[in-house]
Amino acid sequence: MNLVWPLRGFAADGSKSSWQTVRIASEGARPPYNYLEHNKLAGFEIDLARDLCARMKVSCSFIAQDWDGLIPGLLAHHYDAIMAAMEITDEARQKIAFTKPYVRMPSAFMTLKEHATLDTSPAGLVGKSIGVESGGTHQAYVEDVYKQSEIRPYATLEEAILDLAEGRLDAVIGDKDALADYMKTRKEAQCCVLVADVPHDPAYFGDGIGIGLRPEDKTLKAMFEKALDSCMADGTFAKIRAKYFDFNIN
Description:
Layout: E1 21-26, E2 29-30, E3 34-37, E4 40-42, H1 44-56, E5 59-64, H2 70-75, E6 81-82, H3 90-93, E7 97-98, E8 107-112, E9 129-133, H4 137-145, E10 150-154, H5 157-165, E11 171-175, H6 176-185, E12 192-198, H7 202-205, E13 212-213, H8 218-233, H9 236-242
Parallel strand pairs: 1-5, 1-6, 9-10, 9-11
Antiparallel strand pairs: 2-3, 3-4, 7-13, 8-11, 8-12
Helix pairs in contact: 1-8, 1-9
């Protein structure tokens, strides 16, 4: 593996000052964010990374890396950045740095088509049943916010949706991408519609997905963030996003 430093010198803060090439790692196992196509990385994050690299005027290469090895490989300088649908968490921040998020995946409610006008506010769901995947952030959220609803945890989101389809629930809450994907790929979801996004609360749903970097690479972080701002401002981000998601993700 080529481990040549992509730099000419160091800035006063000790970070690399002149990036010419950037090596980006992704898992290749989480479509549509990233996947392998003809043994090459592809997907939303790869398209976005290519645009960001062009804006930063650097040459970028892509490396497929299994999930457990992503952070160790970054810290070992096997590559310079991670774009792999990696959530910005306190645990991850103890090891690496992140750019500002480029994805804040909304959560949403799903219900039966005949209830498409369902009021999903806490007041609107008083006395109604909400299905949720057990043990995750969505369960904590609905238990705290929807105290007058009947919260029914399920081992998987799929099990909750199947009960919704059978009329045993009034609504299901989950990540919008997971719900939308289920509706596209499973005939059981023909019963249902997405009715409302959930207000994003970082206390429950985190800060989103960002580019993972070594803490010392402050110059590279600034470069990525400037490129992200530009990509979002001129509409390019929305065009790339539309190839993979039917709704806003940031």
